Amino acid sequence: MAEARWYVVHTYSGYENKVKVDIEKTIENRNLQEQILEVSVPMLEVAEMKNGVEKLADKKMFPGYVLIHMVMNDDTWYVVRNTRGVTGFVGPGSKPVPLSEEEMTGLGFARKDITPEYQEGDMIVVTAGAWKDTIGSIQTINEGKKTLTINVEMFGRETPVELSFTEVKKM
Question: What domains can be seen in the chain, in order of their start residue?
Answer without folding.
Answer: 5-106 (3.30.70.940), 123-170 (2.30.30.30)
